[in-house]
């Protein structure tokens, strides 16, 4: 690819157009979160009539945002921890052992990632209702139900990505550890995992993003007690008022942790996402 | 399997141990299964069993009276399917329309996302100052929680207070009366724009990584031969990216076709017919009427459709690569 004048013009146009496309919603979100309510109830203005931080204060009072925040945090963190741990074990098995059923496992697990969520939403909901009726473990309307559900959402991709990472770590390292008297699990803990740390971080961020942003199951499996942010943010629209400035402030606040985490790990993430496709 | 026959001391036969580094044969045979057990159990509980239950549900009359006591639900045979695909009555007609809308939505969104992703990936192929900043910026829509981005678009698409109408009507004066974007015929356009906004950046990310694996000498050789940038793109870039594109397009299609977040967050429960995507249609058919049997039948039909499309896609693309 040569950087001719034509190419430079092309690049400038593409970057300008796509830059606007990406930036405008971010700009609207940021400026609207600094507007007084009357600004977002009238015609759109490019800049707040007077800058105010009030939406960032009021948003905690209009709806129980703090509770949604706590729910989302607990659900996402616990789901991530378990999902990553389970994915590490499974990926280690797939990468380091040849055993009967290995291909069946990897293809089945990966194909579940492709099925639309609505397919198992209804049955899962009913299974949860009936588990509650028969053995008394409440899964609908509790964080536990969400945690179990969410951790399986990121599992297939995490296993696939980690197995790829583990494959890239030379087996001679494991073997050296085995010779030194470690068991296979020792080799995993002392050799493979430290070498695969970027992959583990990327998978953790992916799992967290999946749980933090999930809408479909949250809309069915949550009640007021375990409501997460993805559904809770809708509560700002009341019969009489839509507090768009507070919605934008809340959207901004709930986005910042995941966006920063993702952007910090983007290099590992990109490598992991594309490793399979490029091969 | 080599695992079980390995009796010799580990260090004595390093050559045989190349494939799997184990040392206690008895444990090693079971270890992989132990390691997989948690993942398998959870996949069974949350994905596989519910899917089988879903298929069973599609054959019974599972209305709200039987939700807590589902074993008592009467058998319906193919009744739910008949209702779902009887295009003369309201339920079947609604499903058919929703299916058509979803096809249009998916094809346009996937095409737009791929074109934008490719355009940006090619533009960022040669290094320049600020390249990594641009790349990071382009990834933000993907990193943002889906509902946060879509809520912002919801605000922007409001008729009287939104950004879009302010620019189109007040600033540019393109039309005199403010169009509705979230109800009526424009709803599909809104869905496509918002879904593309979120999705193109994934295409960009994947294609960008694919471009990095193309050897530079190919381009240099082509330049020596006098091939311009457009010909280089057609003759080098596109063929080299073929394996990436095959997976990418399929994944984009499967995701878009079952997109729930965009219509749900954009429209809430007031779903306009022009934006009635299939996942949301099934969701409403089930949870507004509490008639899970019909909803399950629709889900199974959706699954069958996606499997057929995937199968044909893999077959056709596979055959074409063999010929090439």
UniProtKB/TrEMBL annotation, chain A:
Domain of life: Bacteria
Pfam families on file: BPD_transp_1 (PF00528)
Record domain ABC transmembrane type-1: where: 69-265
GO biological process: transmembrane transport
UniProt entry tagged with the keyword Transmembrane: yes
Any one cellular-component term (Gene Ontology): plasma membrane
InterPro entries: BP-dep_ABC_trans_perm, MetI-like, MetI-like_sf
Keywords of the record: Cell membrane, Membrane, Sugar transport, Transmembrane, Transmembrane helix, Transport
Membrane topology: Multi-pass membrane protein
Keyword set includes Membrane: yes
Annotated transmembrane regions: 12-30, 68-92, 104-131, 143-163, 200-222, 242-265
Primary location: membrane
Family: Belongs to the binding-protein-dependent transport system permease family.
Protein name according to UniProt: Multiple sugar transport system permease protein
Gene source species: Kribbella antiqua
Automatic annotation (TrEMBL), chain B:
PROSITE patterns in the cross-refs: ABC_TM1
Compartment list: Cell membrane
Stretches the record annotates as Disordered: 1-23
Biological processes per GO annotation: transmembrane transport
Transmembrane region(s): 33-57, 103-124, 136-156, 180-207, 240-258, 296-316
Membrane-topology descriptor: Multi-pass membrane protein
A GO term from the CC aspect: plasma membrane
Entry keyword set: Cell membrane, Membrane, Sugar transport, Transmembrane, Transmembrane helix, Transport
Domain (ABC transmembrane type-1) ranges: 99-313
Family, similarity comment: Belongs to the binding-protein-dependent transport system permease family.
Name of protein: Multiple sugar transport system permease protein
Organism name: Kribbella antiqua
